């Protein structure tokens, strides 16, 4: 949430909803090399289906947020992001998770002006291809 002083001394308040932050984070995380996909899990899937249904009723095309949860506190302003994902077995998991944290933090800050206090990454699966095991 940001507050600005308008020209006529009116206070203008901008509220950025958690689904917006989650969509920005999902897009940024999915673009990191080594990320195979975002994993919604049961909790994320239920919340995502509810949000998608509401937006479709309103005629909106929902941005994908599966596997990402954003939490916003307004006083004081604080943003936290949780991401569940699957990684490629070809990359080091810890390095990829750190790259996701950096990419998501940067993307959320650039898109909203809010810097996340935490970006938590949970690796739910690592895909091994080509018979490496």
Rounded radius of gyration (Å)? 17 Å
Q: Overall pLDDT, averaged?
A: 82
Shape: elongated
The appropriate CATH architecture is: 2-Layer Sandwich
Q: Using DSSP, what is the number of strands?
A: 6
The run of helices and strands is: EEHEHEEHE
β-sheet strand percentage? 25-35%
CATH topology: Alpha-Beta Plaits
Q: CATH top level?
A: Alpha Beta
Q: Give the termini distance in whole angstroms.
A: 48 Å
SS class: alpha+beta
Q: Residue share in helices?
A: 25-40%
Family: Belongs to the asp23 family.
InterPro entries: Asp23
Protein name: Asp23/Gls24 family envelope stress response protein
What does this structure look like?
Belongs to the asp23 family. It comes from Amycolatopsis japonica. This is Asp23/Gls24 family envelope stress response protein. Pfam families: Asp23. With 133 residues, this protein is of the alpha+beta class. It has one domain (15-127): Cation efflux protein, cytoplasmic domain (Alpha-Beta Plaits, 2-Layer Sandwich). The protein has helices at 18-30, 41-57, 93-112; strands at residues 2-5, 11-14, 35-38, 68-74, 77-88, 118-127. Strands 3, 4, 5 and 6 form a 4-stranded mixed beta sheet that branches. A two-stranded antiparallel sheet has the order 1-2.
């Amino acid at each position: 949430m940001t507050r600005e002083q308008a020209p006529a001394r009116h206070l203008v308040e901008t509220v950025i909803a958690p689904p917006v932050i989650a969509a920005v984070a999902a897009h940024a995380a999915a673009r990191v090399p080594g990320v195979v996909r975002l994993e919604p899990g049961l909790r994320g899937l239920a919340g995502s289906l509810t949000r998608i249904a509401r937006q479709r009723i309103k005629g909106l095309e929902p941005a994908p947020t599966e596997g990402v949860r954003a939490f916003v506190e307004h006083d004081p302003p604080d943003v936290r992001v949780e991401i569940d994902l699957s990684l490629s077995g070809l990359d080091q998991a810890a390095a990829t998770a750190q790259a996701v944290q950096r990419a998501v933090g940067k993307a959320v800050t650039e898109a909203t002006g809010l810097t996340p206090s935490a970006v938590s990454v949970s690796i739910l699966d690592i895909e091994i291809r080509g018979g490496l095991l």
